[in-house]
């Protein structure tokens, strides 16, 4: 009996060992069995290194492991023990988790200069191809050989992102149709043929207009003048409540003695029309409120969603303004909300009767119209004739109508380009004044990001191919520039779409970069699919709602947050950039600056696999800072209502703002400026060394900058 149990134990042990070997990925990770389990390029071989283990000598091309038994999911930590050809070699080692078949694309690159001499461990967290078995691919670009003697793959979870220290506090929305009881706690005083409201709170006198006009998306809306009638400085907290679709964070401002303190209260609206809001002021233990009437007028760019399939449900239409999405693009339909910007998509066939019928219905049901065909449809100019017919019919009927050109699918790059036929249509329509914006569709985006790229315990700080490939795919300047040779026109970017990266957070980060690039072209607007059925087949990673009709996780959250930050933003020129920080797709850090009324807006993103410490220098004092971060770790939002330069800025004696970007992170900062003007951004740079010791604050720094917050 004993011998039987012993034999059974040996059998079980051998079975488990065989199962473990079968499940191991990649097989033969230390090349102990030569090249077994690996497909090698010509010239590659496995031999003994200076130790006792085998090593793969790779002079060029790609070596690929056998595929995983099942698809890998989530982030995978890949470690490769490598030895480079020496610092003098112009060579790079490439690494990827790739599909089992098809073209290989690097996710990570390590230069021979960074690898130096001797053996090191290159590690990176990579996303595998979603829904398919994966192979480890190791490549060499340039001179070699590189030696590899160990490859491991293990699942890992990135750490949760720390929330920003300062979070915005928003008042509860007012019910629809809210009307105040008189002037609440305010009194009205006539002045110069009009009137102003006055509120007394905690020894402070707040003066404000009873009515304002606001451009949709603009923040600095309500001008307040505050006089301190007490004997000491006081804090004033301003809270604004509006109906759904209005966003206003609470803000606390120091009210000094002496001259009036004047600043613009923040109130951002995404509904067109006339509405009532309630201003509430708090100081010490006192509180007082006043009503304000706000007329909101359209402004652009307008972020939107497209319903290509069935008509949009009433629930979606009701939710859009409250989400900060002010535009709906859909086939002709009735009952679209008038507080949205409505874009009619006219499907073929575009007969004279269809065009005439559209013109008779559009005046009360839409502001924009465009002939439309799905992605991959004919784009040989068929849409030009009905666009002209729509223009003529609208002119004959004296209907105010803005037209978009027929959609033009950009050709994949890099960089993406526009076909000659589409360019001719856009130029012809634009030069005739027939359209308000050419409608461009970017190629469907796809990527497999990487993060936390390290050599032994040190960060690899250069740009990584997984991110620079995205930047190259989004380098769309060439197509708008070609169109604008014939007519200076804004662009409309329709049906932005992407295949999933395998991480919802990374899908959101790619969307964020795309929105910033589109906005910087001077866009009239852009759309993503409202629902999965509205997206191209296999490219539904960017939809506002999921299949259940709920806001789609990080992508939906990021789209709403960035709609608030980029709506109505006007691009401004980059005054100073470098190959490392700028607009080049190969830069380690990309950025784009904007202005919006009294706000400066800066979008930044990290193309490396390591954290990057930066500074940027505004040419005028920021008064507050809204921050939205979108990256592999999720979506975060922060707000600083009273900005002051940090101790490190004082130590540098420079009016700079410090920002740290994680690997692959996108961040946008929107700042109310003391003196807003187009050239508000001086530079974006890597963080310099901070002088320590001495502790002497430069006298000129406080006089020149810190005293401007807020405007007096």
Question: Secondary-structure blueprint of this entry?
Answer:
Blueprint: H1 2-23, E1 38-39, E2 45-48, E3 54-58, E4 61-65, E5 76-83, E6 91-99, E7 108-111, H2 112-115, E8 119-126, E9 134-142, E10 146-155, E11 187-191, E12 194-201, E13 204-208, E14 211-215, E15 220-228, E16 234-241, E17 246-247, E18 251-255, E19 261-266, E20 268-269, E21 273-283, E22 286-297, E23 302-307, H3 314-323, E24 327-330, E25 341-347, H4 352-365, E26 368-372, H5 384-396, E27 402-403, E28 408-409, H6 420-431, E29 439-441, E30 450-455, E31 458-459, H7 465-473, H8 478-484, E32 491-496, H9 504-519, E33 523-529, H10 553-566, E34 570-571, E35 581-582, E36 589-596, E37 599-606, E38 612-618, E39 622-631, E40 634-640, H11 647-652, E41 657-661, E42 666-673, E43 681-686, H12 699-704
Parallel strand pairs: 14-22, 23-24, 23-33, 24-25, 25-26, 26-27, 28-29, 29-32, 32-33, 35-36
Antiparallel strand pairs: 1-4, 2-3, 3-10, 4-9, 5-8, 5-10, 6-7, 6-9, 8-30, 11-12, 12-13, 13-15, 15-19, 16-18, 16-21, 17-20, 21-22, 30-31, 34-36, 36-37, 37-42, 38-41, 38-43, 39-40, 39-42
Helix pairs in contact: 4-5, 6-8, 9-10
